[in-house]
Prior knowledge:
Elements: H1 3-20, H2 29-51, H3 61-82
Helix pairs in contact: 1-2, 1-3, 2-3
Amino acid sequence: MNVLSWILFGLVAGAVARLVVRGRQEIGCLATIAIGIIGALIGGLIGEIVLDEEVRFRWDFGPFLLAVAGSVILLLALEAISGRRR
């Protein structure tokens, strides 16, 4: 994937993760992209450990679900650290 694809993939994965996590996240578009991209890396790492094979990120349903799952984990961790989640 080229850089533009990573940015778009991160934006979509981060936006879906923000919809999944309840509450209001006061972050902007760039932070959503960053959460999506970093979440994709976390999801890929988890997927490689669990599936015991290399995860190749492309516009497929499986890698997208891993990216969203990683983004949800990252978003929950960031909210727990900041103390906003009650």
